[in-house]
């Protein structure tokens, strides 16, 4: 491998890492917004997604706070996917678990399942490509 091909491979790895950060960052930003809505406006949030408000506003607020907490725990993986691989793997596997959970409840939860399915797949593909490109860029 000559220095020109190594340079282009490093540039490609940098591009793929940047793309992965943007996709992961978008997913995290949307999760923060969704979590904040459920935390601060539980009745409104439940009505938007078509869930019953019969159990009171406490459980959606707790879920919103938990979503924000879990999202913040994924930030290191979004910022540095190569050196924080564990956070990326947990993000993908966690989304897969949530897809299965949401689908098992059905109804309005399918919207949440689709969200996690789409972003889980995008994060997985982006992470896989970024890691492979990074590893191949090393002599």
Topology, please?
Blueprint: H1 3-40, H2 42-49, H3 58-73, H4 75-79, H5 85-105, H6 109-136
Description:
- The chain has helices at 3-40, 42-49, 58-73, 75-79, 85-105, 109-136.
- By secondary structure, it is mostly helical.
- It has one domain (3-136).
- Helix 1 crosses helix 2, helix 1 (3-40) packs antiparallel against helix 6 (109-136) and helix 5 (85-105) packs antiparallel against helix 6 (109-136).
- It starts with a helix and ends with a helix.
In a nutshell, what does this entry contain?
By secondary structure, the protein is mostly helical. It is 83% helix and 0% strand.
| Unreliable runs | none
Rg from C-alpha positions? 18 Å
Run of helices and strands:
HHHHHH
How many helices in DSSP terms? 6
Q: How many domain units?
A: 1
| Strand residue percentage | under 5%
Number of strands: 0
* Helix/strand/pairing category: mainly alpha
**Helicity range:** over 70%
Outline type: elongated
């Amino acid at each position: 491998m000559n220095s020109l091909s190594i340079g282009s491979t490093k540039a490609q790895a940098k591009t793929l890492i940047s793309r992965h950060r943007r996709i992961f960052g978008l997913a995290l930003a949307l999760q923060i917004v969704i979590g904040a809505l459920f935390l601060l406006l539980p009745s409104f949030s439940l009505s938007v997604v078509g869930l019953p408000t019969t159990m009171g506003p406490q459980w959606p607020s707790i879920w919103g706070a938990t979503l924000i907490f879990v999202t913040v725990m994924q930030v290191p993986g979004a910022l540095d996917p190569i050196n924080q691989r564990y956070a990326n793997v947990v993000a993908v596997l966690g989304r897969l678990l949530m897809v299965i959970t949401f689908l098992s409840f059905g109804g309005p939860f399918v919207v949440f399942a689709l969200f996690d399915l789409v972003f889980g797949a995008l994060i997985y593909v982006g992470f896989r490509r970024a890691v492979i490109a990074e590893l191949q860029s090393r002599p």
